[in-house]
Amino acid sequence: KTSLENEDAEVWQWIEAERRRQEDHIELIASENYASPAVMRAQGSVLTNKYAEGYPGKRYYGGCEYVDEVEKIAIERAKRLFCEPAGVEMAVNVQPHSGAQANAAVYFGLLEPGDTILGLSLAEGGHLTHGMHLNISGRYYRAVPYGLGADEAIDYDALERLAREEKPKLIVAGASAYSLRIDFKRFAEIAHSVGALLMVDMAHYAGLVAAGVYPTPFGHADIVTTTTHKTLRGPRGGMIFMRPELEKKINSAVFPGTQGGPLMHVIAAKAVALGEALTPEFRNYQAAVVENARVLAETLVARGLRIVSGRTESHVMLVDLRPLGITGKAAETLLNAAHITVNKNAIPNDPEKPFVTSGIRLGTPAMTTRGFGPEEVRKTGNLIVDLLEAPEDEAVLERVRAEVAKLTAAHPVYGVPV
Ligand code: PLP
Question: pTM of the predicted model, to two decimals?
Fold first, then answer.
C-alpha cells in the first residue's frame, strides 16, 4: 500500500484509476507521453516546498543554495542538448510553468499591445497561443494568421507576401497539428527581411529536434519556446531559449512579469528529463517515434483513409475521416470505448464545427515509449479502421477492446504503481 492510499484514499483511488487507464489504453494523443519514474521522483520531491523567486545567484529568498544548483544543471543540459549541436549561444529560461506561459512571457517581454504578430492559423494546425482571438496572443496583439497551400503544406511564398504587407514585429513558427518538416531557415529569412523577430514554438517537435530526427530551429530563430512534456518526455512545463541580447527582457517578463515563484520540483524534473534526452537511447527512441508514425500513416492509407498533407515526417498526423463518413467527435468516443485514446481535430477547410470536426490527430510518442514497434503499430492502425468502419457493431468493439488489452498487457508502461 502506498502511503497516499492510507493518508487520503479519496484522492488516491482516482490517481490509481488513472494509472490503470494509462496502462490499459493505447495512448495516441500526440502531445502526451509517459515521463520516466526518475522524472516523477524529482517532481515529487521536497523541492516543492521551496520559494526561489529570481534566478540562480540572484534570488529574493534565502536558502536557495541547493535549488540554484538544480536550476543551473537544467540550464546547462538544455544548452548542451539544443544549442551546442547547432553551434549557437543562447540564454535559457527553464522557469515557465507551461508552454502557454512561455509564449505569453515572450510576447509580454518583446511586444507592445497592438503590435502585429503572424502565426499559423489554428484551423490549419497552429496553437491557440499563436494568435487565437480568445488567447492573450490574439486579444492584446494584432494577430494575423498564415496558412497552408493547396498541397496542405505551409505556403512560404504566401507567408512572405503577408509579412511584407503586414510588417509584423514577430513571426511565430511551430504547430500543434502539422505533420511535415518546417523550413525554419526560410522562416528566418522571411522574418528578418521585414525586420521581424522569429520565435519558433517547437513544443511538439522538441524531442525529435533533440535527437536530430527533425530540423532544428537553432541557428535560425531569435527565440525558441517549448513544452517539456510532449516528445521531450519530461514533466509538464515550458522553457525559453533566446538570443543573449533578449535575455534581460524575456527573463523579467517571466519573473516578475507573468510568474511568481518558480516550481523548483518541476525544474528538477526538467533537469532529469534533459539528462535522459542527452543519451543515445533517447536518440533511438525518437527515431522509432518517427518510424512508427510513418508505419501508422501507411497502414491507415492502405485501408482507405487520407492523411492531411499526404504523409507524416514527424511524430504526428491528422487523419481525414470523411472517406468513412464518421466525424472526429464520434470517432474519439468510439475509440475511447475500445481503450484507444485520440483527440478529434479540425482538418484544413473542415466542413464540421470545431467541436465536431472531420478528423482525428494521432501521434506515436507514448506508444513508442511503452515499446510498440512497427508490428504493434500496424496492428493498432488496423484495429482503428476496423472499429471506425463498423461504428454500430458491438462484436467488433468487443474484439478490438480484447486485442487492445493483449497489446497493452504485453507492453506495460510502468508495470507497477509508481
Ligand atoms: N505550443 C504548442 C505548439 C502546443 O502544442 C502547446 C500545447 O498543446 C502549447 C504551446 C501549450 O503548452 P501548455 O499546454 O503546456 O500550456
Answer: 0.97
